[in-house]
Write a structure and sequence with these properties.
Distance between the termini: 49 Å
Bound molecules: ligand G3I
Shape: globular
Radius of gyration: 26 Å
Structural class: alpha/beta
Strand content: 15-25%
Number of strands: 29
Largest sheet: 8 strands, parallel, barrel
């Protein structure tokens, strides 16, 4: 769930009145509420040729906050160069430390494929989707939530009024009714605001009426009973960073006559096609969906030879297909989801498995990790979440082990996963990555410790005066567990917004810039031998963000913050050309006595088929790393286009069939140079 961070500022904010609208026509006028919000957005990636509207690396509706506080944005008011001493850990502890209850267990039903490691699973029952208290009738009766604003420092609300939504309110509906809510963004300065929904309810659509308005169309069903929230954000026509967010509440109740609720057919989660190496064990998890509630029964009428297809032991909506293909060829597998209440209601999908000979996956030349090692750097990738529970796990793990000697868990170490509730920890995924790395003589890059995104709701809800303690306890506990198995850490990730201001994160709101100092000091105190990086995107080439980033690094050094290096994420496009500036940035870090890490490189195709240019960009970035003595690692954000956060832009060095792209060969040739 994306959260909009807000704080109250002394500035006037535009008037916004709203009424509660319900089909039962209960109206009440709303008080004018002054609540200013600072919310950041990710704009472009700064590199050339970034397709319009493509946001990286977060997503446009998962902002981290743009500082609007005049004091915080005044360059003369940044934190003093005086060292920030490490406060003691809270005593007594604010939340329970990891205990034996959090220790992962050996997987109950062996779902893992050819990974060569004893795969672990989380202990105890699966977690609920949210741990926020359910909204009550009293919350609903209190009337619509006030608008929340993002006001960039460059905007004066008295001059440029914020966009707003016309006549928006809350709604009461019965399950089975079709709800339509019109969103009409306006701006008293004229122009047509843009808008986007934060997170659509499952089964809902946000219909574009092609006249500047959009309509939420949703038929809530039994599973939606309760009070649900739905947020839409309007963007100022003159400055898209200037935004107004409105959250409406929809109370869904069961009708007297339950037969009025249509029993909609079940669905299957979208299935990809996969390339499999013959004789590799296949594990395919298939999820059924039924918006009426009871999960559908999944069937495969024609099971492959020797296959089993059973319900997952922990996730009742998931069924697991397991078998080992022994012949090459394309294998279509039809899956049926059958309604648990009315078996005549079904949904069908066919997943295509392309089984290929092992010889198709033998790359010529030397392995990247061996070549890189001879050039004095590590080369690595970000590991896909639960890569060992995938149909192509055998290929994935085999190629990864051969080609790379450093791995970053793409998502396993994010706080919303690893510490989802106060005192509750989920270490299994990270433990599995560490075990895989140890089994293959790989280092592990811990990512991230302190970040503004993927935070658990309990941290988002926490009061500002507790956050320093929570942050220190979190850093201490994660490093206490992994300090002997993970030596490189993104201690603070993405501290800056796109405009170069310090990101208005929950950590910044509580501690100002000092949160960075405290995070690094705590990391060193807990794991003295750790390599501690400050990691960000769009700071490797000239611009406001890069300028601010290096000023921040220098301030940290002046305050004796124990930073060892800088991580340049480098999520770029195939028409990237600013290599000279990257060279300059690498050298600037070296001149500061710090190490350089390429941490998350991927090169999205600016245009279809641009794979040769993509190869040259990979080569040139690698060359810059090899030419910079302080560059220690060249890490990509994945390695096969089958698994990429930007899959649609084919940004990695192997294609979805694990075939080497020109980029793979370009890296191999560059590393092989004397
Ligand atoms: O695991 C849940 C799953 O249970 C749920 O059904 C599904 C649908 O809601 O979401 C799954 O979690 C998703 C997670 O990836 C794992 O797939 C999150 O919604 C999704 O937001 C998350 O996206 C990741 C993103 O960071 C935000 O954490 C991307 O995979 C990951 O590539 C991206 O990586 C970031 C780096 O951490 C920091 N630098 C930028 C980079 C790209 O944005």
């Amino acid at each position: 769930m994306t959260r909009i961070h807000f704080r109250t500022l002394p500035q006037q904010v535009p008037n916004e009145s709203s009424k509660r609208v319900t089909p039962k026509l209960r109206f009440s006028s709303m008080m004018l509420l002054l609540l200013a919000v600072t919310v950041g957005g990710c704009s472009g990636d700064g590199s050339t040729g970034n397709p319009a509207g493509e946001n990286i690396p977060g997503d446009v509706n998962d902002p981290g906050g743009v500082n609007t506080d005049p004091v915080l944005n005044d360059p003369d008011s940044v934190t003093d160069p005086v060292r920030v001493d490490l406060p003691p850990l809270p005593d007594p502890a604010l939340t329970q430390a990891p205990s034996s209850d959090d220790e992962p267990l050996l997987e109950a039903d062996i779902y893992n494929t050819a990974t060569g490691i004893p795969v672990l699973q989380e202990p105890g029952p699966r977690l609920p989707e949210t741990d926020s208290p359910a909204l009550t009738d009293a919350d609903f009766e209190a009337g619509p939530l006030p608008p929340q604003y993002q006001i960039p420092a460059s905007v004066d609300p008295d001059v440029n009024s914020a966009p707003y939504f016309d006549n928006l309110g809350d709604h009461d509906v019965f399950a089975g009714e079709i709800l339509e809510v019109l969103f009409k963004p306006l701006d008293s300065d004229g122009g047509l605001p843009g808008m986007y929904p934060e997170e659509l309810p499952e089964g809902a659509v946000f219909r574009d009426n092609l006249n500047g308005t959009k309509t939420l169309v949703w038929q809530p069903l039994q599973r939606d009973v309760g009070i649900r929230e739905f947020t839409v954000v309007a963007l100022d026509p003159l400055n898209s960073e200037y935004r107004t967010a409105r959250t409406i509440r929809i109370r869904i109740e069961l009708p007297q006559d339950l037969s009025t609720i249509p029993n909609v057919p079940p669905r299957l989660e979208e299935l990809e096609s996969y390339t499999i190496r013959v004789n590799d064990p296949v594990v395919l998890e298939i999820k059924g969906i039924d918006l009426n509630g009871p999960y559908p029964i999944l069937e495969i009428p024609e099971l492959p030879a020797g296959a089993t297809f059973n319900q997952h032991l922990r996730y009742e909506e998931v069924y697991v297909l397991k078998f080992t293909p022994v012949t090459v060829g394309t294998l279509p597998i039809e899956v049926i989801a059958r309604d648990a209440v009315d078996p005549s209601l079904t949904a069908t999908q066919t997943v295509e498995l392309v089984i290929r000979d092992a010889a198709d996956f033998v790359f010529t030349g030397q392995r990247l990790r061996d070549l890189a090692s001879s050039r004095g750097i590590n080369i690595g990738f970000a590991s896909r979440y639960e890569f060992y529970h995938r149909p192509d796990s055998g290929l994935y793990t085999d190629i990864a082990a051969k080609e790379f000697d450093i791995v970053t868990p793409e998502n396993a170490l994010k706080m919303d996963y690893i510490n989802p509730q106060p005192g509750r920890y989920q270490f299994a995924e990270t433990d599995n990555v560490v075990a895989f790395a140890n089994a293959n003589n790989m280092r592990v890059h811990g990512h991230p410790l302190v970040w503004h995104r993927q935070l658990p709701e309990w941290i988002e809800r926490s009061s500002e005066n507790t956050r320093q303690g929570h942050m220190q306890e979190y850093v201490h506990r994660i490093l206490s567990r992994y300090k002997d198995s993970i030596d490189i850490w993104d201690v603070v990730n993405e501290p800056l917004s796109d405009d170069g201001s310090l990101r208005d994160s929950v950590w910044y709101q509580a501690m100002g810039e000092d949160y960075i100092d405290i995070a690094f000091h705590q990391a060193k105190a807990t794991a003295p031998n750790s390599i501690r990086l400050l990691n960000d995107y769009d700071v490797a080439w000239r611009g406001a963000k890069s300028t601010a980033f290096f000023e921040l690094v220098e301030r940290l050094q002046q305050r004796e913050v124990p930073i060892d290096g800088v991580g340049f994420q480098l999520h770029i496009w195939s028409d990237f050309e600013r290599f000279d500036e990257v060279h300059e940035s690498f050298q600037r870090v070296a001149d500061l006595g710090l190490d350089v890490y390429v941490t998350e490189l991927d090169v999205s195709l600016s245009s279809e088929g641009d794979v040769q240019r993509q190869a040259e960009v990979y080569r040139d970035i690698l060359r810059l790393c090899l030419d910079q003595p302080r560059c220690k690692a060249f890490q990509m954000w994945g390695f096969t286009d089958q698994y990429s956060w930007r899959r649609n832009h084919a940004p990695l060095i192997l294609d979805t069939a694990y075939q080497a792209k020109p980029a793979y060969t370009a890296l191999q040739n560059e590393l092989a140079l004397p």
